[in-house]
């Protein structure tokens, strides 16, 4: 698929694999990374990309995946497959830890059923065989050693060893003390020689201690003797050790036999651990390079949005520099991009970025580009990068380029991505340019896709006049004489050879002679390219400015819509409040009329009393309507004044009586601030006020007074010390308000005394049908001195 073989190295794909390999926790995971190759099947690439993307999301947004132990199971399973073979203690311990990791991973994804469907497919239908873990744990302890009670015989042998060693130690201690008392021993304590516990004895006394001499000191003055009394005990310990080893081997062999039928399942577990480690490494690398999953297409096309070269990105992370993003599109209409521009301007990086990201995506790796990027599938990737001259093959630089061009022209097709750096170089430009143009024409007619970098003017002209080819240039800052590393398609770029030479400091006389030697036509073309680039930069800056203005306009439009929505809501709120005020006025008026009618009935239609009541009713109604008329009159009187209302003035809204500050004036409309709220009012609906002078109590509206009374009213009246008539009058006022406001009871504090006031009050309250019962306060809180009247 990739030609030549070293193209993967020159594009940087081998370096990418090494970086991913460093993220692996196990050797099988590293082996899988080493086998990464670009794929051509859509479903396979899509699966690999989605697995990497889901693992990346898991690492960033979910609880850590339990991957503490990823020991390879496959070689141990293959060893256990052989009849008669057995696994060692440490090998069983590795399998045990790996099995626990496998089961923890399966449980992790089972708890998140459906959240990571592509990762769950890694172990689909893979069972949790707990009996394997149970069988191993019955034999192997938490330190990876065979348990002393793994079998009854082993427990008996270990107990026998301990007992015999204790007896041997006791015997040798006795002999050692006796030898010390007799002065036969050398300086020092008991020591081990040839695996035996020995007594250090002076050479002249070695015949005095019966036993076997195992060693002597370098000077020959000390002999190390194993006493005769403990020799047979040590032999017994040695025999028991052999028995212990044989029993352990028998136990491990039996355990291996028990494990052998499950070898296929163990291999499946091994594959799961390897794949999890492999995908995890890909996801970790994707996080390092801020990679995302592009949209995958079956077409042979590329559309990269804000793409960055991953190796360049990692190098720049340490230095704090930013990588200029690349935006490029290759499709069936715009098949080959011919990139030109100054040296060190980023042409080769642009081409390598396209090639490397294509290989990464087809290998199932996330790429450092926006998720809106679109990656197609190519069956072949051909690359001609760098110098491939070979002394062994007798190839010059240009010959090596030509051999690649031969292969490209013969084997490339519409599903081939071709990458050619410095197309046509390596020989006389007079001949290299036409040959390169002819090869480009052949590739174009074969519908090949690709990126070509060049300095040759004939290729720029050919690309501008040929369908399927598109010129592109790397932008250059003329003023600062530095490359911008931004790719712009639609026009070729100048090489800026003279400008760069001038910046480096090449002599003016040399530059003048050089300019005289180039043709007039070439000079005009180069000048035209420079002018075009300057104009392109101006247009780009204008586009940026327009985009900023459009963004600001969108923000203003959004703010205007929010304000409009707020005004509509404020309008509804004011209407609802006005309706509530109207309802309150009607209820008050109805109650006033009913009280008047009741008074007329009580006076039995006495003319004087009736006349007085009617007069009182008229006065109350006049009072209810006086303030709106007064407000309207005030509006008319102050219309001249409202004309002069300015930003910062304080005004009073006539309809509600609320005070607000003017924050904006637009023709006949005022935008007012009511604390955190905003409202719009007509000039004629407000009256300017002096905020420094607080409103007097007498200027408050009737509705405001009612609201104050309601908010401050408490259903409790204290009539202690009052005469009976005054007390009953005060109680009646509180009683009416408590009933009207819907309170459940009225508390009357009258004191105890002789109980006369309490009796008159209770007799008076019994006349009201609204009162259902009366009770005394709790003895601890006033008792008979307080009466509670409860309403229906």
TrEMBL record:
Record keywords: ATP-binding, Coiled coil, DNA-binding, Endonuclease, Hydrolase, Nuclease, Nucleotide-binding, RNA-binding, rRNA-binding
InterPro entries: DNA_mismatch_repair_MutS_C (IPR000432), DNA_mismatch_repair_MutS_core (IPR007696), DNA_mismatch_repair_MutS_sf (IPR036187), MutS (IPR045076), MutS2 (IPR005747), P-loop_NTPase (IPR027417), Smr_dom (IPR002625), Smr_dom_sf (IPR036063)
Domain Smr: 717-792
Domain of life, per lineage: Bacteria
EC number, UniProt record: 3.1.-.-, 3.6.4.-
Coiled coil: 532-627
GO molecular function: ATP binding; ATP hydrolysis activity; ATP-dependent DNA damage sensor activity; endonuclease activity; mismatched DNA binding; ribosomal large subunit binding; rRNA binding
Residues reported to bind ATP: 341-348
Pfam families: MutS_V, Smr
Protein family per UniProt: Belongs to the DNA mismatch repair MutS family. MutS2 subfamily.
Record text on subunit structure and interactions: Homodimer. Binds to stalled ribosomes, contacting rRNA.
PANTHER family: OS10G0509000 PROTEIN, OS10G0509000 PROTEIN-RELATED
Job description of the protein: Acts as a ribosome collision sensor, splitting the ribosome into its 2 subunits. Detects stalled/collided 70S ribosomes which it binds and splits by an ATP-hydrolysis driven conformational change. Acts upstream of the ribosome quality control system (RQC), a ribosome-associated complex that mediates the extraction of incompletely synthesized nascent chains from stalled ribosomes and their subsequent degradation. Probably generates substrates for RQC.
Protein name: Endonuclease MutS2
Native species: Parapedobacter composti
């Amino acid at each position: 698929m990739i030609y030549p073989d070293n193209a993967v190295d020159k594009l940087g794909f081998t370096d990418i694999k090494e970086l991913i390999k460093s993220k692996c926790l196990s050797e099988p995971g590293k082996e899988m990374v080493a086998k990464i190759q670009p794929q051509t099947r859509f479903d396979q690439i899509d699966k690999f990309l989605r697995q990497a993307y889901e693992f990346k999301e898991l690492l960033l947004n979910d609880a850590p995946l339990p991957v503490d132990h990823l020991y390879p199971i496959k070689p141990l399973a293959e060893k256990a497959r052989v009849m008669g073979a057995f696994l060692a203690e440490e090998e069983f311990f590795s399998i045990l830890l790996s099995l626990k990791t496998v089961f923890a991973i399966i449980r992790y994804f089972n708890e998140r059923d459906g959240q990571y469907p592509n990762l769950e497919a890694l172990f689909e239908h893979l069972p949790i065989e707990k009996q394997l873990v149970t069988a191993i744990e019955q034999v192997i302890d938490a330190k990876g050693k065979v348990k002393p009670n793994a079998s009854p015989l082993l427990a008996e042998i270990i107990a026998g060893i301990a007992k015999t060693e204790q007896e041997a130690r006791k015997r040798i201690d006795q002999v050692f003390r006796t030898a010390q008392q007799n002065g036969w021993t050398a300086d020092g304590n008991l020591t081990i020689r040839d695996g035996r516990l020995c007594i250090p004895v002076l050479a002249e006394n070695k015949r005095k201690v019966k036993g076997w001499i195992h060693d002597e000191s370098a000077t020959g003055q000390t002999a190390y003797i194993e006493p005769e009394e403990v020799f047979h005990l040590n032999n017994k310990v040695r025999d028991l050790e052999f028995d212990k080893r044989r029993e352990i081997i028998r136990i491990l062999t039996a355990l291996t036999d028990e494990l052998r039928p499950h070898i296929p399942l163990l291999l499946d577990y091994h594959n799961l651990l390897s794949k999890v480690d492999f995908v995890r490494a890909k996801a970790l690398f994707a996080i390092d390079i801020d990679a995302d999953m592009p949209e995958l297409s079956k077409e042979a096309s590329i559309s990269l949005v804000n793409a960055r070269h991953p190796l360049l990105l990692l190098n720049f992370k340490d230095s704090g520099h930013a990588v200029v993003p690349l935006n490029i599109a290759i499709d069936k209409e715009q098949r080959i991009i011919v990139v030109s521009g100054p040296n060190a301007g980023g042409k080769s990086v642009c081409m390598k970025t396209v090639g490397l990201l294509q290989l990464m995506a087809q290998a199932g790796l996330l790429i450092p580009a926006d998720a809106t990027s679109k990656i197609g599938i190519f069956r072949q990737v051909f690359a001609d990068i760098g110098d491939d001259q070979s002394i062994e093959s007798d190839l010059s630089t240009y010959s090596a380029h030509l051999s690649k061009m031969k292969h490209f022209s013969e084997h490339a097709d519409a599903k081939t991505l071709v990458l050619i750096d410095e197309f046509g170089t390596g020989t006389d430009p007079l001949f290299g340019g036409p040959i390169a143009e002819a090869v480009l024409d052949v590739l174009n007619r074969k519908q090949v896709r690709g990126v070509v970098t060049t300095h040759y003017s004939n290729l720029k002209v050919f690309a501008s006049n040929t369908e399927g080819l598109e010129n592109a240039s790397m932008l250059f800052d003329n003023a600062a004489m530095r490359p911008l590393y931004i790719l712009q398609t639609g026009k070729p770029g100048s090489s800026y050879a003279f400008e760069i030479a001038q910046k480096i400091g090449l002599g003016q006389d040399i530059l003048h002679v050089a300019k005289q030697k180039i043709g007039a036509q070439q000079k005009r073309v180069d000048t035209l390219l420079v002018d075009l680039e300057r104009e392109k930069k101006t247009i780009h800056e204008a586009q940026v400015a327009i985009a900023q203005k459009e963004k600001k306009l969108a923000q203003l439009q959004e703010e205007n819509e929010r304000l409009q929505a707020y005004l509509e809501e404020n309008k509804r709120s004011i209407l609802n409040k006005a309706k509530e005020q109207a309802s309150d006025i009607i209820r008050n008026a109805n109650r006033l009329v009913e009280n008047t009618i009741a008074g007329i009935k009580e006076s039995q239609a006495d003319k004087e009393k009736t006349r007085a009541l009617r007069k009182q009713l008229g006065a109350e109604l006049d009072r209810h309507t006086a303030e709106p008329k007064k407000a309207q009159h005030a509006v008319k009187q102050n219309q001249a004044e409202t004309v002069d209302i300015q930003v910062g003035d304080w005004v009073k809204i006539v309809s509600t009586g609320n005070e607000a500050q003017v924050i904006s004036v637009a023709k006949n409309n005022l935008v007012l601030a009511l604390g955190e709220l905003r409202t719009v009012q007509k000039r004629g609906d407000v009256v300017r006020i002096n905020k420094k002078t607080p409103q007097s109590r007498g200027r408050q509206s009737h509705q405001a007074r009612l609201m104050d009374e309601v908010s401050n009213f408490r259903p409790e009246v204290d009539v202690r010390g009052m005469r009976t008539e005054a007390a009953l009058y005060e109680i009646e006022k509180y009683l009416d308000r408590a009933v009207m406001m819907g309170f459940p009871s009225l508390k009357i504090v009258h004191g105890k005394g002789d109980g006369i006031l309490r009796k008159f009050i209770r007799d008076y309250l019994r006349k009201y049908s609204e009162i259902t019962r009366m009770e005394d306060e709790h003895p601890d809180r006033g008792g008979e001195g307080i009466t509670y009247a409860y309403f229906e």
